[in-house]
Amino acid sequence: MYHFLYFNTVKKKIQRLVFPNGFYINPYPRQYLTPEVNSLFRVTSELSRVSEDVKKNSPLI
Question: Hey, is 9 helix, strand or coil?
C-alpha cells in the first residue's frame, strides 16, 4: 500500500513540473491538451529543432 501512495505522490509532482497549469483530456480522439508546458521542455524542444536544421544545412565532411 505504501508503494502505491508513494508512486501517486511522485506521479503528481512530475505532472505539476511538466504541466504547471494542469492538462485536459479530450476523450475523443483521446488527446491530452495543456495551456502551457514547463519552459525547460519548451527550450529543449526548440534546441533540438535548431540542431536538426543545422545538421540538414551543413555540408558533409
Answer: helix
Domain boundaries, the chain: 2-57
Please state, in angstroms and rounded to a whole number, the distance separating the CA atoms of residues 34 and 18.
10
Residues 6+ apart with CB under 8 A from 16: none
Q: How far apart are CA 27 and CA 29, in angstroms?
A: 6
3-class secondary-structure state, position 23: coil
**Tell me: the pLDDT tens digits for 15-35?**
888 888 888 888 888 888 887
Model's pTM, two decimal places?
0.47
CB atoms within 10 A of CB 23: 13
